[in-house]
Amino acid sequence: MSLGKRALLSLTVLTATFVTAEIAARVALRGDWSAGTVPRLRWADLGQREPERGWALRPSLVAEIVGPHDTYVVRTDERGYRQPRGRWAEAEAARRVLVLGDSIAFGWGVDQDETFAARLDGRLGEGTEVWNLACPGYSIDQSLWTYERHRRAVGPDVVELVSVMHDVATASRSEQEGLGKPRRELVDGGWSRIEPSPDLVRYRPLPILHGLSGRLASAALLRRFREGPPPSPAVVPDRIPWPEKGGRAVDEVAAGVSAGLLDPASPIHEALRRLVASARADGARFVLVACPFGHGPFLHGPRFEPPPGGR
Question: In angstroms, how far is the first alpha carbon of the chain from the final one?
Fold first, then answer.
């Protein structure tokens, strides 16, 4: 047999083996795998390094996110935002509501059609678009930089900032849960941009096997063997009482954020002032929605008792 025929035979055998393995993997994962969706990512896998704002979401990604209470699917558009693709190329501008903020606006723990922006979009009806440019962990300064980057392309009629108090407070820090972010500081009467320490920049590309697992069932099955079964979701009780300690923590965070919002020398105040001024200069109305608590089962709609002491 000639060298060319042996090479062709080897290629045929390899192709047949791959096709057989792929078919077997799809049968084994029946109901647990969908072509085009990267399975079983952690929320941190959504992010990538971006010097301007610290981090941003990976563009054009469809992924199943393993959360502490359940799994949910995230779809990002061509610029890395959790909204329908193709909006940036539209010629006709509808009435637009631009949603900025952190993971609450992003839709932590819920599927695409259950996010705050998607539900608002459905309530406002035809002729109005709700753009979701929120990103987990963003403080007011990062939302400001997002608005400055996209204000002309979006041309919003309403700018809505949705944020948890904890994330509001991080405008004065160069770090959020180990992730580096720029911040602004008042120096000699002027605001200067302070870059984060290099050791806080711990971003990496999505592993090759993870990326392939969204296209090939065989890669998804290999990941399952390597990583083990998915974790069981935590049980969310019907009623969640507010412990006194938790109530005090909410009060302390609220007091600190309020002081920052009222202090003209604080980065929180400066970022919010600039964001409001920019929106108004563009002829848009500005709406601020502040949430007193963060993640956990509160995002999944449980019935919980009022906080003690009228908090």
Answer: 84
